[in-house]
Amino acid sequence: MIDIIQQYWKAFLWTDGYHLSGLAVTMWLLVVSIAFGFCASIPLAIARVSKSKWLSRPVWLFSYVFRGTPLYIQLLFFYTGMYSLDMVRDVDILNHFFREGYNCTILAFGLNTCAYTTEIFAGAIKATPYGEIEAGRAYGMNKFTLYRRVIIPSALRRALPAYSNEVILMLHATTVAFTATVPDILKVARDVNAATYDSFNAFGLAALIYLCITFILVALFRKAESKWLAHLRPMKA
């Protein structure tokens, strides 16, 4: 392990002026995809719980497709499948977008986590206590204000434990990014293994890095839960 760290730690952890480290690429993929999925999932979750089938059915279909197919297949579909279409290659913007592995990876990751997050938030919205809604109406809030000031903040707080699991699962899912030639932590580990044939140390170091990131994420979410879900703690006798 010491030899591997001495020879290849820069590829795993160090970013220079020309190349991002595997850790930096992995965190970039995670942050961008999670941010995209979070922002898109809130309006989609509202549409998902709507009584109008014209709003809820398309969101249900989107969620069903992306939760019902493997992320690896989705990445291959965007990275190789889309670019094989003549209509994509003939349009400059589409041709440039789907030719880049980073773009396809972010698109696949963002849509995948958006589908799962939409269902998490939709479930939290449905579980909003009716008394909170009645209290908002008693203050004369219209539907938009009710969602903005009561339902959405309350739902996001209750969804925090489930959403923390989704973020951690998304971190682990970034390991398929090497398929699109994106140099994440696993891609660096595979390159180290190919150069040294020391699989135990190469992948062991990668696993250690993922474990440290997961530990930090869990600690951050636990701190957030202790702050924003304090009112749900059982009362002491």
Automatic annotation (TrEMBL):
InterPro entries: AA_ABC_Transporter_Permease, AA_ABC_transptr_permease_3TM, MetI-like, MetI-like_sf. The chain crosses the membrane at residues 20-47, 59-79, 200-221. It holds the Pfam family BPD_transp_1. The keyword Transmembrane applies. It comes from the Bacteria. GO terms for molecular function: transmembrane transporter activity. It is a multi-pass membrane protein. GO terms for cellular component: ATP-binding cassette (ABC) transporter complex. It is found in: Cell inner membrane; Cell membrane. The keyword Cell inner membrane applies. Residues 23-221 form the ABC transmembrane type-1 domain. CDD domains: TM_PBP2. Keywords: Cell inner membrane, Cell membrane, Membrane, Transmembrane, Transmembrane helix, Transport. One of its GO terms (biological process) is amino acid transport. Belongs to the binding-protein-dependent transport system permease family. HisMQ subfamily. The HisPMQJ complex is composed of two ATP-binding proteins (HisP), two transmembrane proteins (HisM and HisQ) and a solute-binding protein (HisJ). The HisPMQ-ArgT complex is composed of two ATP-binding proteins (HisP), two transmembrane proteins (HisM and HisQ) and a solute-binding protein (ArgT). This is Histidine/lysine/arginine/ornithine transport system permease protein HisM. The gene is hisM.
